[in-house]
């Protein structure tokens, strides 16, 4: 199957229009109108936000993406080619994304993490099956009955949950070489809503534990979660503004189609 730009649609949950403007809305394919963007506000959970967004499009490929992600110049063309290749090599694919975690806990992908100030992973790489995807971007081949679990609380671990749901339907989830800039800010805590989502996913997929997410191993053993929480004890509260200019970071990373990497 060959896709066209009209087959893809972006869906994003938004709570900060300034960040949206300086990241996702700055993406050339969004600016040009080649890539439609649906925004959802005021949702009580990410599952609700994304399910509400699904109601506003009939696009066969829905790209669920954070407001602080920037898509480099040429991203849409690259995505169309990558998905066409997936159809040939992995016709039963259901979920894809630029960064994920394999069953053995190894990370695979290619994104620029502004908070860490470096590229995570590296490319080029072949599509790789994974156990969990980082929630910054989830590319979903839509089916009539597809939705995010409406009972999953808060705004965490839906990337792990939806990948496990794909496998439960005998579908496949993969990391694909589609680099983006994640203009993120540090999370000071993994308590509250994160723990609620952690417990829900742990109970729902108890027969598959342990599971690896990009942040923490999900297990009935509390030590992995405690360890990650301990490491974040000195992390400062998130700043109000962004840490860097999205386009400048993308050029530096060499992600822009018409720019080479800067030294």
Spatial strand arrangement across the major sheet: 2-1-3-11-5-12-9
Secondary-structure-based class equals alpha/beta
Principal-axis shape: globular
Report the radius of gyration as a whole number of Å. Answer: 17 Å
How many helical stretches? 8
What fraction of the residues are assigned to beta strands by DSSP? 15-25%
Overall mean pLDDT: 93
List keywords for this structure.
263 residues, alpha/beta, 7-stranded mixed beta sheet, 15 strands
Structure description:
- The chain has helices spanning 17-22, 28-31, 46-54, 75-89, 158-168, 193-204, 223-231, 246-253; strands spanning 8-13, 36-40, 61-65, 69-70, 93-97, 99-101, 107-113, 118-121, 128-129, 132-133, 137-141, 172-175, 180-182, 211-212, 217-218.
- It has 263 residues and is an alpha/beta fold.
- It has a 7-stranded mixed β-sheet.
- A hairpin with a 4-residue loop joins strand 14 (211-212) and strand 15 (217-218).
- The longest helix has 15 residues, at 75-89.
- The chain is globular, with a radius of gyration of 17 Å.
- The model has no long low-confidence stretch (mean pLDDT 93).
Quick recap:
By secondary structure, the chain is of the alpha/beta class.
Task: Please outline the helices and strands.
Blueprint (H helix, E strand, L loop, with lengths): L7 E6 L3 H6 L5 H4 L4 E5 L5 H9 L6 E5 L3 E2 L4 H15 L3 E5 L1 E3 L5 E7 L4 E4 L6 E2 L2 E2 L3 E5 L16 H11 L3 E4 L4 E3 L10 H12 L6 E2 L4 E2 L4 H9 L14 H8 L10
Parallel strand pairs: 1-2, 1-3, 5-12, 7-13
Antiparallel strand pairs: 3-11, 4-13, 5-11, 6-7, 6-10, 7-8, 9-12, 14-15
């Amino acid at each position: 199957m060959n896709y066209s730009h009209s087959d893809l649609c972006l869906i994003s949950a938004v709570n900060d229009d300034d960040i949206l403007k300086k990241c996702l809305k700055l993406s050339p394919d969004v600016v040009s109108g080649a890539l439609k963007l649906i925004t959802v506000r005021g949702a009580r959970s990410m599952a609700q936000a994304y399910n509400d967004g699904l109601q506003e499009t009939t696009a066969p490929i829905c790209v669920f993406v954070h407001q602080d992600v920037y898509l480099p110049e040429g991203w849409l063309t690259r995505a169309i080619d990558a998905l066409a290749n997936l159809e040939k090599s992995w016709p039963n694919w259901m979920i894809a994304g630029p960064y994920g975690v394999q069953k053995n806990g190894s990370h695979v992908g290619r994104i620029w993490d502004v908070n860490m100030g470096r590229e995570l992973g590296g490319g080029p790489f072949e599509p790789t099956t994974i156990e969990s995807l980082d929630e910054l971007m989830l590319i979903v081949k839509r089916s009539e009955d597809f939705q995010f679990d409406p009972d999953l609380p808060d705004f965490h671990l839906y990337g792990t949950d939806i990948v496990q749901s794909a496998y439960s339907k005998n579908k496949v989830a993969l990391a694909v070489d589609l680099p983006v800039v994640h203009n993120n800010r540090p999370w000071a805590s993994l308590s509250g809503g994160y723990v609620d989502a952690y417990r829900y996913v742990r109970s729902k997929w108890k027969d598959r534990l342990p599971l690896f997410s990009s942040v923490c191993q999900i297990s009935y053993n509390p030590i992995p979660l405690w360890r990650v929480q301990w490491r974040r004890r000195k992390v400062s509260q998130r700043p109000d503004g962004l840490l860097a200019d999205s386009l400048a970071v993308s050029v530096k990373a060499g992600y822009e189609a018409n720019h080479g990497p800067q030294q």
